[in-house]
Amino acid sequence: MPLTSTILMVRPAAFGFNEETAANNYFQSSPDISKEELQQRALTEFDIMVQTLRSHDINVFVIEDTKEPAKPDAIFPNNWLSTSPTGIVTVFPMYAPNRRIEKREEILEQIAASFIIKDLQDWTGYEAEGRFLEGTGSMIIDYENKMIYACVSERTSLSVLEKYAATNNFQAIVFLATDKNGMPVYHTNVMMTLGEDFCVLCEEAIEEEWELIAVRQLLESTNHSIIAITRDQMHSFAGNMLEVKNNKGENILILSQTAFNSLRKEQKQMLEAYSTLLPIAVPTIEEVEGGSVRCMMAEVFLERR
């Protein structure tokens, strides 16, 4: 499982509660503060996160968002953009119409100016058909073993997933997952984190026993130790982590302070056997937009120019 040492992040210019995404993201909560205060809090959390990552020798490639048109979820670039170890940049179809404007040509140009892009795949056309696949939110990608884990939702269309997998020679492992209210988990990356040698998995969310058995067997066959979390921990974003390898070659597991606080002592010890835990506080971003630190980071696997 290749780990990146470079992260792309988008610094928000108009962060706010997005009613269009709240239709099926049950992790969101509407705040009772002004838009200006909300933006400032999100900006502070973002800047501290970037500073924290860099202080741990992780490369951060920061893109500035534009104020107009307003893009309340621009802070989550991993849903529309991904890069692969083979040099491919992919643009994905997005569920919410007001999130589609996050896909800015100048961001791709900035990436191309600093990194070598061998191919570009644009799957945006499926938006017109009402079919979506929201990047590494929808998919947990095991590049080494050519597998994709994904829970089906309104944001993860099975047909697009299967075509994406076939085009890129992956095997798609698909399952149904529900939150504590019985609703579909909107993104796979809030219930599952795949590290180099471990997997954090909300087993409770996979209600069909045969699907859970299949997922567990595949993870174990690829030498990933499973660290199970509960649905309550999932709602505290304990599944929304990202393992990276810093410039010193050290494995770092990035997670939110909320997620860290929700973990039991033995779970932390299990994770610490594989990686140094790096908790970062992003409470405003988590509460208002229903995503955490992993959603804020798009991995850059591309070779530098």
At a glance:
With 305 residues, this protein is an alpha/beta fold. The protein has ten helices and 15 strands. It is 29% helix and 21% strand.
Characterise the protein shown here:
This protein is α/β, with parallel strands linked by helices and 305 residues long. The protein has a single domain (6-299), classed as L-arginine/glycine Amidinotransferase, Chain A. Helices cover 29% and strands 21% of the residues. The protein contains ten helices and 15 strands. The protein has helices at residues 19-22, 35-55, 105-114, 135-138, 158-167, 209-221, 231-235, 257-262, 265-272, 283-289, and strands spanning 6-11, 59-64, 81-83, 88-91, 119-122, 140-142, 147-151, 171-175, 192-194, 198-201, 225-228, 242-245, 251-256, 276-280, 298-299. The chain has a three-stranded mixed β-sheet, with helices on one face. A three-stranded mixed β-sheet has the order 3-4-5, with no helix packed on it. The protein has a three-stranded mixed β-sheet with strand order 6-7-8, sandwiched between helices. A hairpin with a 4-residue loop joins strand 6 and strand 7. The longest helix is centred in the N-terminal third of the chain and has 21 residues, at 35-55.
